[in-house]
Amino acid sequence: MGEPSRLSLRRQLLLWLLLPQLVLWAGGGLLAYRFALTYAEKGIDQSLTQSVRALARQVKPIGSGLLIDFPRAAQDVLEQDPKDRISYMVSSPPGRFLLGNQHLPPPPTAPSGENEPLFYDGLLEGKPLRIVALDVSYGAEDDRQTLRVQVAKGTALQQRIASELVADMLAPLLALGVLLSMLVYAGIQRGLTPLTKLTAQLENRSVNALSPICMTQAPSEVHGLVQAINGLLDEVARSVHQEKRFINDAAHQLRTPLAGLISQVELAQRDTSDPVLLERLRKVHTGAERSARLVHQLLTLARTETQARHEPLDLAALTREVAREWTPRALAAGMDLGYEGEEHLRIEGDDLQLREALSNLIDNALRYTPRGSTITLRVDRRPDGARLAVEDNGPGLKPEDLAHVFQRFWRGSELPGGCGLGLAIVQEIAHRHGGEARVELLQPQGLRIELRLG
Fold it and tell me: What are the protein's UniProt keywords (predicted)?
């Protein structure tokens, strides 16, 4: 199962800073629209109040009747806009149609008092209206009657005014929001720059670069992180130093007694002719040599895990030099050891570690190939980096064993002398040089082990 995806710190900051801004902007737009509607409604109510009172003044009692002095021109003015026209109705008593548009909806309740306008909403032909009703008394004291005047106006204009007002308000706010978002993003980028620099410093460091990190300009929080990392690096450096010291002490304490044991056994073998004793001494000598080799390989493996120096070197010249050093042993074993490849190939690497890797590969080839075999060292340039290969025409390995070749303490042969660490060291050295070690069977027989160096 893969690791769960996590938002970066930059995205989390943008999310927490910009999302509330967007929510507040949308909420502010809704509130502004509601306020605009309220103020537009107040304006319409004032206009309707003036209209209904003006219309009520045009209705004059004459004796027991009414004189409605409402010229046609005024009526045309009220009804001139078919989309948002003003409709009216005069009734007396309230509800008994006299003049105007008799389809105006009645008020839900009667006005609270005479000359007190009552505002309410209604529908006419499916369109929303804002309506005002005004009751006016007329007639003699002993025969008072009530006249109701209603004036209605569509709310389309109200909504249009509110929308235009909100648009005029929100457009600048939107521009300011975009500008603020850009400033927030730029601020986050600038604020995270110290972390980006810290990440780059850590990524560009080699495994053994344990010197303190230096950041002079950074926020206090990043300084605290840098101090914590420097403290950890200091502890790691101290631990590595102690480990190196232990390795050096172990090399001295283990190699010297084993070398002395081997020398004493060889002297004892020359000083005795008893076959039983000679066989026992031979076994002791073989065990001591294997122990000495195991100690050497363990110490080498420890050094490759804790040390890595990358300096300019000529890989081709180094390979030829190592081949010359191993030529006497190859001749003694009846094998042909040679070199093929580039005359010169410059790389960045550790001279001692690459010599150790080559020595392990040549030693394996000499140890596990029969007499008369050919061992070839190759150095060439590939698209993915330099290649260093050691190949032989010996029996090779079984295909199913190839996956285990670089495992520690795994051995592909029961021949005495090996300890199963040589190829593990080769793989570790390849990793220290930004590459890897690979193994390949050759046809019709043989084995190639190569290092791809980045």
Answer: Kinase, Membrane, Phosphoprotein, Transferase, Transmembrane, Transmembrane helix
